[in-house]
Design brief:
By secondary structure, the protein is of the alpha+beta class. The protein has helices at 27-34, 105-126, 132-144, 147-150, 194-204, 211-228, 258-272; strands at residues 55-56, 59-64, 67-72, 76-78, 81-84, 90-94, 97-100, 103-104, 159-164, 169-175, 181-184, 187-190, 244-249, 252-255.
């Protein structure tokens, strides 16, 4: 198949010149120069048009003595409807970092996939892993590129967390729709249920907690968010649908399997019987 390159060449059976020319370590910058229409933020809606699209809701993160935990509920909503009951909202960005998504689900997932390629491309070009702050800032620039769609209601505001190999600790970063990047201390939450989850974490989290204790605190925070926010999905014992939970430490990213989560969640649910508000 022939394709005309940006330089005007047309070669049968070969890659366009742009693909063979040395350039930036940023895959996003490469796509912006070669095929900008493929970027999520380069697809404006027709004037006056609005879309009703599924939205992801609540993500929580909290530091523990050896790293950081990120967890998300599984519900996606579309207006007053439940669009999806078992959506994944926490994704590994690379070996030492994860992204939790909130906002317009389709664009958020597409942005995360592009971000995964962005980090992999950088590592291949530069021969080294990008620093954690570099990863956080690179994600900020991609969110900034979606500002046009955000102004039309298709907002994406993720949360980024990772294990900082230089500092030997877990770190959390939040964002706004303009691409502002903000380091967070101790714990944080985003999404429609974030107000309730953050209040829960304030009561449950304290410095020096171990991994198991912070895992439970994050799951309790999601439970509290679901208790007061209709867009946040609580643990679905009947369907065996549990939150997604990632642990980041010196060994990298690992996701807790459903069997492990089921045991912890069922203990929390049992403790809440007769005490649904979780008063302590």
């Amino acid at each position: 198949m022939n394709r005309t390159t940006p330089a005007g060449d047309a070669r049968a059976g070969s890659l366009p010149t742009a693909y063979l020319r040395p350039g930036s370590a940023s895959f996003t910058e490469f796509v912006a120069g070669v095929a900008p229409e493929l970027l999520p933020g380069r697809r404006p809606l027709p004037a006056g048009m609005s879309l009703e699209a599924p939205h992801g809701t609540t993500i929580v993160a909290a530091e523990f003595a050896g790293g950081v935990i990120v967890a998300g509920d599984r519900r996606a909503t579309m207006g007053n409807l439940i669009a999806n009951r078992d959506m994944e909202k926490v994704y590994a960005a690379d070996e030492y970092s994860v992204v939790g998504i909130a906002g317009t689900a389709g664009i958020a997932v597409e942005l995360v996939k592009l971000y995964q390629v962005e980090l992999e491309h950088y590592e291949k070009i530069e021969g080294t892993i990008m620093s954690l702050e570099g990863k956080a800032n690179r994600l900020a620039s991609m969110i900034r590129g979606n500002l046009g769609l955000a102004m039309q209601g298709l907002t994406v505001v993720p949360m980024f967390a990772g294990f900082d190999l230089d500092e030997g600790r877990g770190r959390i970063f939040s964002y706004d729709v303009t691409g502002g990047c903000y380091p967070e201390r101790d714990h944080h939450s985003i999404g429609s249920g974030s107000l309730f989850a953050r209040g829960s974490l304030k009561k449950l989290w304290r410095p020096g907690l171990g991994e198991a204790e912070v895992v439970r605190a994050c799951l309790e925070a999601l439970y509290d968010a679901a208790d007061d926010d209709s867009a946040t999905g609580g643990p679905d014992v009947g369907r065996r649908i549990w939150p997604t939970l990632a642990v980041l430490d010196q060994g990298g990213v690992r996701f807790l399997p459903d069997d492990d989560l089921a045991g912890i969640v069922e203990v929390i649910v049992a403790h809440r019987r007769g005490n649904p508000g979780g008063a302590r």
